Inverse folding.
């Protein structure tokens, strides 16, 4: 009786060990794959930059080579020694497209450096940073969350406002209910989705309502602007209030109806280097790039307004 | 033979390593696993601002969210029983081609991320969904209504009831049913007088699991039903929203959710085990 039992337990041990190994492998591979994906995109566009006549500087080819061999730091040390390293940027979800593009430019300009991004809601990012998540740069979608980060002593130096975003109306393609302005959203026949007042886009919505005296009765108050957009692209509601950049990003999945009252309520995006930065030099360069002409050009192309 | 001798021994001598028939080392990972589940709850408990606790959980929005959660979870549990019990009976007793496939499909909501479930529901019951125009003709507007919350909760909770009840049906076997049938009972009578009383503990624990899952439902609700106080913003959605501005309120409400879940599980667990033994 004891012999089959012990062999059964050996089986259990083997199974447990297998499970542990499997878990480790999964966690490692998922971790590295996310890093890899951002690096891959960088490779693709930096080599594209190298082949274009604009980027004919001598560093460009070596940078694409460095990025291709994943040990970027060592092989590119010859071209720009102090710039090597991995920069971690925590940025608001609405900056995903623009910051990914700026990150590619950064890697081209700083051969040997790699930029990894964590895109999430600004308040989530502050929570993660407060809990000790390692990062070099934080870009928030509102001043409120940057103030929270500053209050928690996470920020080194003074945050710089680098962009602004205003609200716009989006409707399902073709604007089926014929919205022409902000006042139309108060009609009881129109189902409107907005952000909850607790999140930045909702706060902006509430301010526009106060300014105009138009009282919207929404069918849903969403947690994020992407949730509002989702309700419109899936045709669940007649109209939604999102940022102009979201409307632009959604392309022909929505019809945009701009309204003049939006211009008075600008949501400001600040960026700052962090006290816990392991790459303070690269962090400063990244902030300079975002606030400089090249970064501003990328942001403007995506629909962002200049910082007020 | 081995099973028969070790099981009563475990009951008699309790959990201690000696006498359980288990090697001592099994207890180390078992305890670690237990700590892994309990520790985060303790950590959350330590963060509760007790001085503001009552004020935080009795705010208008919190009360509205708690009521909505209890109402919708109860409704979806009833839906789960009405739809899930017959499903479990068919899966456990009937034989037909494609039975295995049917069982896998039933379990699908269990493995789908709830957000994916929500997206699927939008394309089914949404305004431009598969059934949307039909429902529109009938004058039913599901989008952004409490009904949408119940649909989302039922969708994710149904497999729990089916799984649990199907397991009980298989364990109970068909002997008593066969005897009742030979004594002349018609299928409906057998089901009502023999089968259902026999698997009642399984049905209850399945219903409890479904209720708990419905109570915690977040992703599908957020995607499919939206979020409006008193209509679609259930407790998990309220917690997620409060976290944006008032983390203390989010923690306090989380504790309420945990307490409600624990109470329900404990109450019915106790009754279910009494019933089964």
């Amino acid at each position: 009786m004891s012999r089959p039992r012990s062999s059964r337990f050996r089986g259990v041990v083997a199974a447990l060990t297998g499970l542990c190994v499997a878990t480790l492998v999964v966690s490692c591979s998922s971790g590295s794959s996310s890093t890899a994906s951002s690096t891959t995109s960088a490779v693709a566009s930096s080599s594209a930059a190298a082949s274009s006549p604009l980027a004919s500087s001598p560093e460009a080819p070596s940078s694409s080579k460095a990025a291709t061999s994943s040990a970027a730091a060592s092989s590119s040390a010859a071209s720009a020694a102090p710039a090597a390293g991995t920069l971690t940027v925590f940025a608001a979800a609405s900056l995903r497209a623009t910051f990914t593009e700026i990150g590619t430019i950064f890697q081209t300009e700083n051969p040997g450096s790699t930029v990894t991004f964590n895109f999430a809601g600004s308040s989530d990012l502050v929570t993660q940073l407060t809990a000790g998540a390692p990062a070099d740069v934080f870009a928030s979608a509102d001043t409120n969350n940057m103030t929270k980060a500053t209050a928690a002593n996470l920020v080194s130096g003074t945050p710089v406002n680098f962009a602004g975003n205003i609200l716009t109306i989006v409707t399902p393609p073709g604007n089926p209910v014929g919205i022409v302005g902000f006042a139309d959203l108060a009609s009881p026949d129109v189902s409107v989705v907005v952000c909850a007042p607790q999140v930045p886009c909702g706060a902006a919505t509430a301010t526009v309502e106060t300014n105009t005296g138009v009282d919207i009765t929404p069918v849903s108050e969403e947690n994020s602007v992407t949730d509002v957009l989702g309700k419109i692209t899936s045709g669940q509601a007649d109209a939604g209030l999102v940022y102009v950049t979201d409307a632009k990003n959604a392309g022909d999945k929505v019809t945009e109806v701009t309204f003049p009252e939006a211009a008075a309520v600008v949501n400001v995006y600040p960026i700052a280097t962090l006290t816990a930065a392991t790459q303070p030099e690269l962090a400063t360069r990244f902030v300079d790039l975002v606030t400089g002409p090249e970064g501003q050009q990328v942001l403007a192309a995506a629909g962002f307004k200049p910082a007020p | 033979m081995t099973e028969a001798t070790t099981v009563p021994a475990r009951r008699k001598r309790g959990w201690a390593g000696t006498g359980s028939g288990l090697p001592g080392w099994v207890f180390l990972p078992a305890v670690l696993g237990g700590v892994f589940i309990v520790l985060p709850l303790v950590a959350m408990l330590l963060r509760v601002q007790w001085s503001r606790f009552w004020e935080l959980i009795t705010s208008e929005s919190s009360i509205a969210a708690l009521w909505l959660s209890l109402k919708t979870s109860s409704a979806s549990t009833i839906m789960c029983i009405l739809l899930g019990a017959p499903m479990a009976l068919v899966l456990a007793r009937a034989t037909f081609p494609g039975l295995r496939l049917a069982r896998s499909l039933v379990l699908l909501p269990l493995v789908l991320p709830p957000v994916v479930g929500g997206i699927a529901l939008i394309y089914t019951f949404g305004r431009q969904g598969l059934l949307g125009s039909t429902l529109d003709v009938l004058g039913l507007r599901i989008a952004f209504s409490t009904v949408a919350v119940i649909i989302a909760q039922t969708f994710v909770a149904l497999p729990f009831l089916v799984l649990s009840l199907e397991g009980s049906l298989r364990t109970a076997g068909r002997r008593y049913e066969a005897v009742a049938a030979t004594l002349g009972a018609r299928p409906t009578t057998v089901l009502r007088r023999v089968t259902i009383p026999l698997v009642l503990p399984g049905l209850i624990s399945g219903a409890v699991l479904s209720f708990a899952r419905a109570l915690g439902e977040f992703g599908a609700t957020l995607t499919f039903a939206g979020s409006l106080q008193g209509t679609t913003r259930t407790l998990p959605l309220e917690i997620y929203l409060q976290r944006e501005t008032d983390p203390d309120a989010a923690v306090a409400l989380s504790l309420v959710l945990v307490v409600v879940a624990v109470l329900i599980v404990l109450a019915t667990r106790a009754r279910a085990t009494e019933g089964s033994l």
Summary: Chain B has one domain: 57-276.
